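User: I'm designing a mutation panel for TRAP-type C4-dicarboxylate transport system substrate-binding protein and want to avoid disrupting the core. Could you give me a predicted structure to guide residue selection? Please restate the sequence first so the numbering is unambiguous.

Assistant: Good idea. Sequence first, for numbering, then the predicted structure tokens:
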Amino acid sequence: MGTKFARAALGVAAAAFLAAGLGATDADAKQLRFVHAYPTASQHHKNVQWFTQEVTKRTDGDVTFQVFPSAQVMPINQELPAILSGQVSMTYSVAPIAASVEPLWGIFDLPFLFDIALDDTSHGRRFFDSEKGGGMLASAMEKRGFKLVSIAPTDYPSSFFLTKPEPVETMDGLHGLKLRSPGGRIGQLSGETFGYSPIAIAGVELVPALTQGVVDGGILPPIYTRDNKLPLKGLTVAPYNWPAVTPIIMSLAEFKSLPEKDQKVIMEVGAELSQKSLKIVEEQTTAAIKELEAGGAKVVYISEADLPAWREKAQPVWEAFVEMTGEDGKAMLDEAISLR
């Protein structure tokens, strides 16, 4: 019954989506179809609501949106191809998915590259705003038919979160563990380098995988862990990698079809959302960790004194990223290091 109901609901949502597209006229051509995979209670959706409402307000209603949350229309890995095919206008994606069409996004998978503290995301902010950081990502996406509107993270970087109340405190503690990871070549190399087995598991399958012992834990962030009540009790907090970097990506063709004044509003609101989202992450991370501790989790931190050794261990992964992405990847890596 549950599966039939879910399929029926998806069918209704898809039918409504298609009807909305077929019913468009010149008079409402500026209505943009915004899809994303996150539930309506998530910070992702709250960010989308703020963004769309602000754009509509500041364009005096010239640009409006139909928002389809919760993967109603398609799974997250189909959103970017759907933008290129003209099915949808834009999405709120995630770095590992964006990396499937533009490998430079893999920079956020690099272990210990970004120096992000619990209450200070300024290293990320400087990189997003830099011409050789966010600027190079924007240029690369335009070459592929996309407009990068905003980089608006929704969580602190991920690290090693285990089901047992025995958190990882040394590199040796990772050896032999099976950990859910975002997947991709960088994720595989990271596991090989640090001695754990990375296993790609979809979000909807994560809780069963944790409770049934398919994996020992995951490379996960604290806010997501709290909000989804994941059964994790041994938490190592550190800026290991940052898959929760979530960009708003739009069809370049649709963006260019808008009047310049509306294009300007979209980019201004996107820039404001980037700053706003980072502030929310700073405010929520410590609170999330405290709530996880109150729920019985044991939490440890990789100290500032120990971080250089972890970064040194990660060098082969950084070098592999440069080999995969060439001069642009090296320029971005050097920029991230210089902005610390």
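For picking mutation sites, this is relevant: The chain has two domains: 30-154+245-283, 158-243+289-339. The radius of gyration is 20 Å.
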